[in-house]
Amino acid sequence: MSAQRVDWVDTAKGICIIFVVMMHSVLGVEAAAGETGWMHAVVAFAAPFRMPDFFLISGLFLANVIQRDWKLYLDRKVVHFAYFYVLWMTIQFAVKAPVFAGEMGAMGALEFYFLSFIQPFGTLWFIYMLPIFFLVCKIAHDRGVPWQLMLAIAALLQLAPIHTGWLLVDEFASRFVYFYAGYIFAPQIFRLADWARERISVSLLYLLGWGVVNGGLVYLGWAGLPGVALALGAAGAGAIILTSALIVKGGQLDFLRHFGENSIVIYLAFFFPMAVSRIILLKLGILDIGTASLIVTIVASVSPMILYWLIVKTNLGWFLFRRPQWAYLSGTFGKKRQAQAAE
Fold first, then answer.
1. How far is CA 231 from CA 16, 190, 211, 236, 299, in A?
2. Nearest of 47, 41, 45, 37 to residue 292 by alpha carbon
3. Are 154 and 174 in contact (CB under 8 A)?
4. Alpha-carbon gap, residue 181 to 185, rounded angstroms
5. If you ran DSSP here, which 8-state letter would residue 287 be given?
6. How confident is the model over 258-311, as pLDDT tens digits?
7. Which of 194, 264, 285, 303 could form a disulfide with 273 if both were Cys (CB 3.0 to 4.6 A apart)?
């Protein structure tokens, strides 16, 4: 990971990854239990901005690297995520293989595994889409496509009712505009964070108003309407930026920054503790669905960090979160990265 980090960016990523884990945890518990709990309202409130903000934050630093030569760019922005996708897709598939084989037979399960190379698998679709976004931006940049045209096309794709059933197509249409906006408007976004730190009262008023509007539109069922969804995604991303800047200004909740700094660790590994804790709590049956969902969310968020801490301390299993040398396009570059990781 980079030695130079931005505190509010990591805090924003920490908020987003917790919301992502929360969504999967809550909906999983509710689906298994056959009923909803009080955490369902929190997940619904976060739905309009949860992934838009994650993609916007992911595009913030693209301007720093987009002019690199293709080999280095592909290594950092494509091969990097491809390695973790294939590794953790295989791990998840191995864990779930008995269920898949029981439902579709051994050959059907094997076909499903290979299909996952073109149809993003389970919770891993985010890191499947990122390399594609990076590639599209690099090609557009090198070909001299005006950013205004790219942004307009991305916005039109988000507004269009594109529902093909293929995540690669549907999620690209739905999410690319936020990633590209993070790339194009990065200077303005950083100024917004600085502005929030100097105008705490005004920022809090904005957040209050945003919360009422966002919650109201979700309650009315209008949050997913064309145009409304795009506006709420942008406004929600702005709200998370302000919130993160204010949290850092207040010097509180530093665990969010730590979670954000290691968001890929949580994203890759949360599925297993989530599933185990869900099964245990539902079998015990001593908690209401909302509280059980909250505990599953906490366990699923914290457990990957404990695993990562153990890996760092023992130097065992490091390949789960660090690319080995053979997975770099440049062997020399891979050695340098591994040396930095060991420091």
1. 18, 20, 14, 8, 33
2. 37
3. no
4. 6
5. S
6. 999 999 999 999 999 999 999 999 999 889 999 999 999 999 999 999 999 999
7. 303
In this structure, the dihedral spanned by the alpha carbons of residues 216, 159, 227 and 187, taken in order and rounded to 10 degrees, is 100
Residue 252 and residue 249: Cα distance in Å, rounded?
Answer: 8
Place of tokens 């709590």: 281
Q: Which residues, at least 6 apart from 144, have a Cβ–Cβ distance to it below 8 Å?
A: none
d(CA 73, CA 317): 26
pLDDT above 60: residue 169: yes
CA distance 195 to 258: 23
* Cα dist from 277 to 140, 178, 326, whole Å: 44, 33, 35
Q: What is the model's pLDDT at position 341?
A: 41
**Strand boundaries in 220-333, DSSP class E:** none
How confident is the model over 170-227, as pLDDT tens digits? 999 999 999 999 999 999 999 999 999 999 999 999 999 999 999 999 999 999 999 9
DSSP H or E stretch at residue 44 = helix 39-46
**What would the two tokens of residue 2 be?**
């980079």
The Cα 296–Cα 24 span in angstroms is 10
Say if residue 153 is exposed, middle or buried (CB neighbours under 10 Å; 0-12, 13-18, 19+): middle
Model pLDDT for residues 91-117, shown as the tens digit of each residue: 999 998 888 888 888 899 899 999 999
Position 87 confidence tier, pLDDT thresholds 50, 70, 90: very high
Rounded to 5 degrees, φ, ψ at 58 are -65, -25
| N residues, the chain | 343
Structure tokens at 303: 């457990």
For residue 290, give the amino acid letter.
G
Tell me the C-alpha distance between 117 and 98, whole Å. 20
Q: What is the pTM of this model?
A: 0.90
Asked if 11 and 260 count as a contact pair (C-beta separation under 8 A), the reply is: yes
